[in-house]
Amino acid sequence: MDQAAEQQRWEARPRLAWVLRALSWVLPVVVSVAVTSAAGRWLPHPEGRLEVVAWWVSLTMIATGVLYAVDGVTRRLLPLAALFKLSLVFPDRAPARFRRA
């Protein structure tokens, strides 16, 4: 193989694929916990039983909303992780979709 063909080789990067998959699982939980912790400090602390229930329900809704939002964003990394697991050789140039990914 000449040097130009060697540069066009799409090599597998399994470690990077693993990191992206792990991020898609861990990041939503970490961000949700961090935002909920901050919201717990920001929301006024309850005094009565009904206020305590409302406070916990509010925190649970915040945690769930953030978890779903961040999960939706990080799931977009999964197709890229699949591409990093592939090992392909292109005779001419890599297709544009691979370069963009």
Description:
It is rod-shaped and about 65 Å long. Helices cover 72% and strands 0% of the residues. The protein is built from 5 helices and no strands. It has one domain (3-100). The chain is an all-alpha fold and 101 residues long.
List the helices and strands and how they pair.
Layout: H1 3-7, H2 14-42, H3 49-74, H4 78-85, H5 96-100
Can you describe this structure in just a few lines?
This protein is mostly helical.
Described by strand count, sense and barrel closure, the largest sheet is: none
Q: Regions with pLDDT < 50 over 5+ consecutive residues?
A: none
Number of domains: 1
The averaged pLDDT comes out at 83
Q: Helical region count?
A: 5
Structural class by secondary-structure content:
mainly alpha
- Report how far apart the termini are: 25 Å
Written as H for each helix and E for each strand, in order along the chain, the element string is: HHHHH
Helix fraction, binned, reads over 70%
How many strand segments?
0
Structural Rg? 22 Å
Strand content range? under 5%
